[in-house]
Each structure stands twice: as C-alpha cells, then as structure tokens.
Amino acid sequence: MNKVQNNKAWWLVLPVFLLVAFSAVIPMMTVVNYSVQDIFDQSSRYFVGSDWYRQVLQDPRLHDSLLRQFIYSGCVLLIEIPLGIAIALTMPAKGRWSSLCLIVMAIPLLIPWNVVGTIWQIFGRADIGLLGYTLNAMGISYNYASNTVDAWVTVLVMDVWHWTSLVALLCYSGLRAIPDVYYQAARIDRASNWAVFRHIQLPKMKSVLLIAVMLRFMDSFMIYTEPFVLTGGGPGNATTFLSQTLTQMAVGQFDLGPAAAFSLVYFLIILLVSWLFYTAMTHNDKQG
Description:
By secondary structure, the protein is mainly α.
C-alpha cells in the first residue's frame, strides 16, 4: 500500500527561512548592490561594475591586513586546540569537581568582548596593571602601546584566555561520549596513556575537533572588538586586522562602494578557508 506523503510540515520551517532571508540574504544583496555602484548621496548613484573589486584587490592595506589575519588565526589554532585538548584530558570525569571545573571553564565565555578588551587594557598597563607592573619590576621591558611584539603577544594571550575554554568544553564533551568499553579493552591490553589518547580518544574526538577548529578559525578571522579596545589597531598598524581595516574604510572614510566590495571579498575568504578546513578534515576522517 502506497503511503501518502504529507508536506505540510514544511510550513513549520517557513518562519526560519523568512528570518534567514530578513537577517542575512537581504543585507547581503544590499552589500552586493553597493559594491557595483559609486554612491554620492541617495539620488546620485552610478554603476561602476567591478571597478571597486579591482581597486580593493590591489589595495596594499588588504594585503597587509590579510597577512596579519592569517598569522594571527594560525597562532590561535596552534595554541588553543592543543591546550584545549590538554585541559579536557585533565578535567575530572565525574563528581563535584567535574561540575566545578565546567563552571570555572565557562566563566571567560560569559564575558562580553568589549569587557575582555578593557580588562586586558588595564591588566597590561605598566603603571597600574598587575601584568605590566610585574613584568617591568622583573626587568622585562613591556609596553603593549608602543612595542609591536608586546602588542601582538598581549592580543594573542588575551584571545587564548578568552576562548580556550570553548575548545576545552567541546573536547570534554567528546571525551565523555566515548563508551567505557574502549577503556576496559585498553586496560586489558595494558595500553599506555599515550596509546589510549592516540588510538581511542583522539579519533573519537575528531568530530568535535572539527567544530572547534571551524569555530575558532572563523571567530579569530573576524576578530574586531578585543584588539580595537586594547590597542586600537596599533602600535602603527601592527594589530590592525581585516575587520578594523574594513571599519576604517566604511565608517572612517565613508567609502561605501569599496567597503562593500571589501566585505564581500572578506566573506568569500572566510567561506573558502572554512570549506578547505572542512574538506581536509572530513577527507582525513574517511581515510582513517
């Protein structure tokens, strides 16, 4: 007997599609429209085709900001992913200490981004900040406002402090999802801790690690508030990333056409690199 297919349930998804269209698609199409026009005011607009895209792609500010952005995101992933795994492995699996660890690890994630920048701005000051005063008292010359290396290290450490908890919590959830029979078999075979991690824990965490890598890459590649509050993009342009360059172009100079083209190039870069990450990790998972 053939069953009659009922498609009425799709109407329940309609509000979601409308919400996505309103919050994402319509603004995106507006940006696309701006990127092909030279806008003087509401009544004076001229079609320029791909001129803004050529100008943006040849802009040295884009090249410099893109290089800084890739270096920064690469450093974030190289530090936070291994550190998050290590923290997750040391967290207790059961009991009160497990709940306490989860609460403590979640605290940095609850702090707003602008507050994080303000905390580290005060924390790193050489006159009143605990970090800056202590380092200078130890004979280490530290000033994130004037030294490029100090600014980079401070922004990077700030991000590690803020977001490593997310990686650790994701890895912890992946570890807790591993059936106990795997560990029992490892104990019977007298496997070492490294063997357990390499052959049981790490393969079982691949899915959550993929999520962690994707989230941390996309978020670090779009970082704006924390370095803007902490260093203002300085000293010079040392910590001026893509988002800050885009904001300066759109808000500071009010170049809406080039800024729209810049934002679409920015979006495509994030989309392309995220797709490459996803493809590489899923291919590796299939090979395994």
